[in-house]
Amino acid sequence: MIKILIGAVLFALSFLSPALNLPVYVEYVLIGASYLVLGYETIIHAFKNIFEGEFFDETFLMTIATIGAFIIGEYHEAVGVMLFYELGEYLQDLAVDKSTDNIEKLMDISPEKARKLGKDGSRTEVKPEEIKVGDLIYVLAGERVALDGKVLEGSAYLDTKAVTGESKPFYAEKNASVMSGSIVLDSPLTIEVTALYENSTVSKIINLTKDARETKAPTEHFITKFAKIYTPVVCALAFLIAVVPSLITGEWSVWVHKALITLVISCPCALVLSVPVAFFGGIGSSARHGILVKGGVHLENLAKANEFFFDKTGTITEGTFKVTKVVSEKEDKLLTVLSSLEKESNHPLAKTICSYCPETNVNATKVREYKGKGLSGIIEETRYYAGNYSFVNTKCGGFKAPESSGTVIYVCSETEYLGYVELEDELKTNVKESFNLLREEGFSKVVILSGDNESAVSAAVKNSGADEGKSSLLPQDKVEYILSEQKKGKVCVFTGDGINDSPALATADVGISMGGVGSDAAIEASDIVIMNDNLSSLVTARKISRKTVKIAKENIAFAIALKVVFLILGSFGLIGMGWAVFADTGVALLAVLNSLRTLRNI
């Protein structure tokens, strides 16, 4: 801006010098000085490109056009073109800065220091990169958590918006997992570090965001190729306009002037700049919603996709089991026995069962665990068994297994069958709504692909409103199913969270992982990461992708149409250099401003 202001002042003084009765050479000096102040960077850039073999870009066109204007004596016109070009570039930079604001904020979520706790209780500030797994860090209220870990001492509310996009504070107590980049809101925490800085959530977010800047969408590649063909064509056209009529009429100054106008009009700034800004704006808008897109190509593919596939466990379900049914004529006794046995077990379901059962002082002795089958133990001199059907049925047969889509734990003694408890991994609350919204967004089919048994998948299909479900699938089976749909011409999206989902995520046209609960392998294999694990974010991502592609296409059509109109008018001498400048810088700025619509709320 300082450069533009100085150049503009010198340019204005050049107009005033005759009125001030200054010598003519002063006017020329002011014109030359203003041109050099405004255009030196553009001119240097143009010559650097020429030496590197890159002749045809907007800086080359602006340099040739303005130098040509000087040659034919249009001094003020030459400076005016450069002034408005530089002003347009400045305004475009402001627009780009606005489009990158969300991502820059995201990049600023990593604290420079961490407070490491020594064995003697001392606190030392060190760089997060120096902290090792197992070290303890102390985080005060108002500070960001530097590394992933679990709470060892204290409890506090955490602001996780920058990491997950979730506006509701997360309550972390002892043993709760906390993500780097979160802000401790109300009281200090002592945290045991569970991942090195390079493997932490905040580091992954930053790396994914950096990668996103460098991955171009097909539309962006088209513009780059188009510009390389378009620019030499218009240069040739300008040359013909300057030479052919001049040889016939002898009016060199007139036709060279028209050729220079053609060069200024033809600058491909609007095309080259506004389309990448549209995709970058879409990536920034996604980041604000807790959606990390690894590149514009994935936004474009998501906009074109027409089939959506989901893993089941942990993706459309909560990923944690809950007791949904107790069937027994002696429910109190069943729950007492089951609780007494399960509190002696380290099985993942044991904690869930114990938290559901009423507290009891009854303790089981001589507890034995049969891996993959169940438990046995003695309670008040009677041995009881709890486990799956095949295990318990051999101990006290005579009962039938119920039809169930969940996990069933049966309980009996050596002489009495007590009943069973059913546990299910419940669907997330907004699954059905999200599936319906995805259909409204143009997806013809929503399918669940799962390794679970048929009854569990059938129940999930029924309760979620999915179109169909495939059960008992190995990772390679999911890949084969996606490939079969792609061979039919379908553009497929797959969403998963586990290591076993990585092949399917990599195979799909767009792989989307759940970043909060997802495995490192799944996140690495995916194209888009949903940091808040909220299925409604999939709908948001789809809306952003379609809006981004629509705006990019609008920019292409708008810029080409206006360029053609102005080129025709310019070649016939119907417009002057001022309109030529608008056709270049003005059209580019309008296209960039249109691109910023991607940042508006969806």
Give me the number of helical elements.
Answer: 20
Q: What radius of gyration results from the CA coordinates? A: 34 Å
| Count of distinct strands | 22
Shape label: elongated
Q: How is the main sheet built?
A: 7 strands, mixed
Mean pLDDT: 82
The percent of residues in helical segments reads 40-55%
Our estimate of the beta-strand percent is: 15-25%
Distance between the termini: 33 Å
Low-confidence stretches: none
Return the structural class: alpha+beta
- The largest sheet has its strands arranged as 10-22-21-20-11-18-19
Describe the structure.
This protein is an alpha+beta fold. Helix content is 52%, strand content 18%. The strands form four sheets. Strands 10-22-21-20-11-18-19 form a seven-stranded mixed beta sheet, with helices on both faces. Strand 14 (374-379) and strand 15 (382-387) form a beta hairpin. The longest helix has 36 residues, at 536-571. The two termini are 33 Å apart. The mean pLDDT is 82.
What attributes characterize this protein structure?
single chain, 602 residues, alpha+beta, 7-stranded mixed β-sheet, 6-stranded antiparallel β-sheet, 52% helix
Describe the SSE topology:
Blueprint: H1 2-16, H2 24-51, H3 58-71, H4 75-107, E1 114-117, E2 123-126, E3 136-139, E4 149-153, E5 156-159, H5 161-164, E6 170-172, E7 177-178, E8 183-184, E9 189-193, H6 201-214, H7 218-249, H8 252-266, H9 269-288, E10 291-293, H10 296-304, E11 307-310, E12 317-327, H11 331-342, H12 348-356, E13 365-370, E14 374-379, E15 382-387, H13 389-393, E16 407-413, E17 417-427, H14 431-440, E18 445-449, H15 454-464, E19 468-470, H16 475-487, E20 492-496, H17 502-507, E21 510-514, H18 520-525, E22 528-530, H19 536-571, H20 577-595
Parallel strand pairs: 11-18, 11-20, 18-19, 20-21, 21-22
Antiparallel strand pairs: 1-2, 1-3, 3-9, 4-7, 4-9, 5-6, 5-8, 10-22, 12-17, 13-14, 14-15, 15-16, 16-17
Helix pairs in contact: 1-2, 1-4, 2-3, 2-4, 3-4, 3-8, 4-9, 4-20, 7-8, 7-9, 7-19, 8-19, 8-20, 9-19, 9-20, 10-19, 11-12, 14-19, 19-20
